[in-house]
């Protein structure tokens, strides 16, 4: 091991840059320890304590920068380390130097001639103001930010309706305009099905299923989760229906939302009744009669909505889909094998979802048959708080909710939250883990890999107790997504995960397994 | 409706906030520009409201 | 013929504004140039910080109305002249900076609203979670010490800086908890100037300590003299043993001044406004000038200690 150091007089680089670079330098092959810092007495003390001090550091002052390193001479040299430092400094400076970044919306409009949509993801309390500014400039808005007040939302949407512009959001996670995925969205084939969705991952699931069935989408308009509330009155869904009805590319319209406020449901269905194009409606768990009465097609699941939209487009017979792609014998064999691998005390469900609407779908179905603790419980006594940190009974969580993510990115971006729940919540009483894996733009670069890692370490823990673990998942993604559907599915399968073609089929399979273990 | 004009035009996006959304646009060759947004008035809420009002006058 | 290039300041800190209007002539030099900021140093070793629009405005600072990336037209050691309001000129590059249209920005918290004890505790808990989850390259992961501090070991530290400073940090925190300002002052010598970054981590931490003391609503109740002596001690230690940029930041903090986002975090924390706190803290980590997580760690530490003072009174 060799020790060396270098001093630069009056050299200033900002704090964040210096901190990141010293971490990068440590990764150079042969480098054992490296410190980069300003030459204060205490920093020099640290250098000495780590036995990195050399005569070069004598006479250093707090306003001088030093690099001190211990490294294996046979693998690298001090020159290489310094060179790497300079390269990193220059790379940092170039990274943002590529494209011009204007400071305000007004200057952006001047620089990008013909701009027609603004995508906003700044903190909520500032977002309404920028969105309003955008609408005033005649731009369509995709507002990803949450924590925007209902009053602001109403004001923005009224303005948008007046101007005939899209005001997607607040809290709008997904949209596809002119074939371009915005925020969290999958890469889909273009086609003739237009979608208006008030629930992000619900919309992703429906559109992905449409793609898997060989059809495509014309436009996917997001509204944000509160659009169909009493206060907002479905302003954006109404505008979306009009826009898709006027759009010659769109032949079939799909509406997706949690059950709307009754007055809003009536308003939307009145609009649907007048619409000349076929309309498929999935008000997840909503009133099918009212939808039928409005001349539209009601659905039993997100996947069913996709199948019915495709059938309507192709002029095929429309029927509820409540089964599996696989044959009944194959499904029974999977259930049989899973159940046989479990010990008698393994009875519980652990639903660890990243997608909100996918969690809803699971809870709506499984919650009918089992008592499940959740942050979206069927009854108040099953609220997750009732557990007081204890892990017991069935649990199903939407890990994308604020209470789990505060201060950290959404689990679709940063898989750490789910990995932590895997460790803390998948205990010896667990029979089956149910989860989603959402691909597409905006999502993590390898969500399936993170799941596989968690599953493998859970399996190792279980093996210590002589137990096995059943994991059922679905992948919300297409073969055109940047993460690659096939690769993701294979990663999961290699970790022994049972991968189902849709969330609903995964839920149904889990239902069968739970029915057997609770006998 | 203006929305239907959007459906017939090339999408050109102004991104404000998470830079990764801008990178996603660029990787798909969508015309886009990223606003180097920061909280107005250094995050001073009252000041920002005031500035907004001044702008609208 | 060379043309004169004009840059406009969009905002100016009130303290800088007052400082300049009092002077008729001032010759400064460019101290340091970064991507999004430039420091000027006055003959009295005061720093003036100019930032581009994406950066947080600083006390004794101004924001230039320019987009990014911005190529600063001047270099380190260029001289900058001030010949009376409203203009700075940089003769070497035929460049001038106009100040007259700049909006005033207050580098203090105004009309602080103190929330209920319960709301503030909730906010503190929230901030600790945010800091603990942030990938800290400095000393902020020591935030975990605040919960287990009678029983800490270097094994809990995730980097070499934390390991080195843990012992002295705990001694400092214990002294502040006892309000033993004499011991705390001595311990400051073991912290100032330590850590990675242009403003070493402990300096960011220490400026949060001073800022918290400044806005303590119970100020003046006890040990007024000892506290003032402690604060002076920190300021003079900074002048001796750390970088000029750090010393300037600590001086401002002693006077209740900090950058806009840092003030927002403190305001939300004191007000017990959890929603505003989450926004402000994440913005401070994202857009903040220096090692934001170390500063937030300092706020957490002081709010928690002040809470124990309140309970013991």
Short structural summary:
Chain A has 519 residues and is α/β, with parallel strands linked by helices.
Could you characterize what this model shows?
The complex is a heterotrimer of chains A (519), B (57) and C (313). With 519 residues, chain A is α/β, with parallel strands linked by helices. Helix content of chain A is 41%, strand content 19%. Chain B starts with a helix and ends with a helix. The C terminus of chain B is likely disordered. Chain C is an alpha/beta fold and 313 residues long. Chain C folds into two domains: 101 residues, no CATH class; 196 residues, no CATH class. Chain C has an eight-stranded mixed barrel. In chain C, a hairpin with a 4-residue loop joins strand 6 and strand 7. The relative contact order of chain C is 0.15. Classes of the chains: A alpha/beta (519), B alpha+beta (57), C alpha/beta (313). Chains in contact: A-B, A-C, B-C. Chains A and C meet through helix 1, strand 2 and helix 2 of A and strand 2, helix 2, helix 3, helix 7 and helix 9 of C. Strand 4 of chain A pairs parallel with strand 1 of chain B.
> Which pair of chains forms the biggest interface, and how many residues does each contribute?
A-C, 42 and 55 residues
Helical element count of chain C?
A: 10
Helix content range of chain A: 40-55%
User: Which radius of gyration of chain C do the C-alpha atoms yield?
Assistant: 20 Å
Characteristics of this structure?
heterotrimer; B: 57 residues; alpha+beta; two-stranded parallel sheet; 3 helices; 2 strands; 49% helix; 18% strand; disordered C terminus; C: 313 residues; alpha/beta; eight-stranded mixed barrel
